[in-house]
TrEMBL record:
Taxonomic lineage from the root: unclassified sequences, metagenomes, organismal metagenomes
CDD domains referenced in this protein's UniProt entry, alphabetically: Glyco_tranf_GTA_type
Domain Glycosyltransferase 2-like: 325-433
Name under which the protein is recorded: Glycosyltransferase 2-like domain-containing protein
One Pfam family in the UniProt entry: Glycos_transf_2
Matching SUPFAM superfamilies: Nucleotide-diphospho-sugar transferases
Gene3D superfamilies according to UniProt: Spore Coat Polysaccharide Biosynthesis Protein SpsA, Chain A
Amino acid sequence: MFSKTKRLLEVTVIFNKSNTFGLQNDATLLQRSLAGLARVRFADPLEPPVTSDVNIHLETPIYTYVPWSNYNVFIANPEHYLKESYEPYMKHFDIVITKEDLQIQGAHILPWSLLPFPKTKVTPVKEFLYLLGGSQNKRKAAKELLSVWKPSYPVINVYSIEPLENNKVQQSNINYIVKNLTQEERHTLLQKYQGHVAVSFSEGFGYTAAEAEYVNAYTILNTIPIYLQDYKESKNVAWLQTPTLKNNHLYPYGSFVSDFSSVEEDLEKAIQGFENYKSSVSNTEFKQLYFKKRLIEILDTLPKTYIQKPKLPPILNVEDCPPISIITLMYNRRKFFDLACHNIMISDYPKDKIEWILVEDSDNPNEDSSDKIISTAEQSKPLEIIYLPLKKKTPISEKRNLGVMKAKNDIVLFMDDDDHYPITSFRRRVAWLTLHRMKAKATVCTTIACYDLKKGISAVNSPPLNLPLGQRISEATLTCYKSWFLERMFDKTVHIGEGDSLIKGRESDVMEIPPQQILVAFSHGNNVSSRRIPSNDSVEPSCFWGFPQEYLKFIHSLANVSLILN
């Protein structure tokens, strides 16, 4: 499909842009390899998604981007592959690529390469270079290696972005430099030294080893699988025998060094080899050409199912809106019923298509909302309000279950009483659930906009990507089919973070949608949510999410804060 398409394809490469070395290089390598076949853009997981023909996810599957592309490709890194968190997403990925054989069923193996860089005509000095950068695996290996680096060995120049706790760093033939190198400085150093060290406890590719090969350096490597795969035939490499095990339960595909105690003899031989070293030509250029050829071969396995990139977000016209049931939980927050009513009334979802179910277990007579709810229900037509009072304090999870069981419609939305839901929120959520080609059983946001009613501070809360989906979701944004929900409800004993019990094992049924125009979560001091807005005394009020002044006064009054506006 890929190379045979008549038009220039749109490809989005998604990666953590704060990683300015490894992942940035990977993304640029993909971009250059696809030149002439695709228009490639880079995206960070926290940026709003845009539509593409193909999404390529580097190291981390970004689930919120999946619906925005016809095809999704995941490039795995074994040392960072969290099987428990990532595996449930794989059903929605058309291709999985690994840089070595990880025994993942159906995965394509793509031996990695590096970007070429300008070479200079310099005579390298007879010393070693060891670039640690920010790699924890290389730092761990460096502690072991430097501890057996004899004073009689050649000088080794070690560069890292942070200090290393090792007494041998003070040794006269060990230069330890703490510096964040620019690309130009790095390229200069690579060509300055005749010997390179790229020993590591684990690698997904190992740029320092590839760079050493590119400049024809004498290189000391250890026997981790990716190095053996890529350099076992190289005449420029001296090997340190370091047994590895796949014994990390978090990263089961990663091979990690299990024993570093017997490298001294191999290191002695490596140093002797360095004394007599004469460089031989590397095959880096062949690897670069093969990478491009193999990448396109893999992408060509994508079926030619879609002629155009998707048109998103899906649009649900008001006249086509199906009937829905909205579930709101209440507990000792009488004032917040007014906010909940505001959310319902400003919504552009047809009121005659809404069943609003309020589940209340207030145990403070002064905070009970029953009279307000009953009075509103009597005047709400065509909106239908169902009041479900409970006799005793009940876990949030069980209250959600009771609300869904009471619902008469098969499309159910949760709406918390203390959050803001923009005008189009309900219609957008139902559109993603009912109109997208993925045919999800549930949709949800993980990243959400937040606003602190006490301090006037805004933030965007995004749970760590290494957590399973069920631990990342905002239940306040959950939209699903009642029939799907009833197959396995919330664990009724859970008081917070109840989403995990509903979703675990069913992640492939769930679509993550972008948070824009879905919700702004309010923090007011009495929340039960685990999400918080980080702040300190120096943080000034800012970004009011475009709220009108009268609305700002209203929502701050709910937290007993008087707002003075110019």
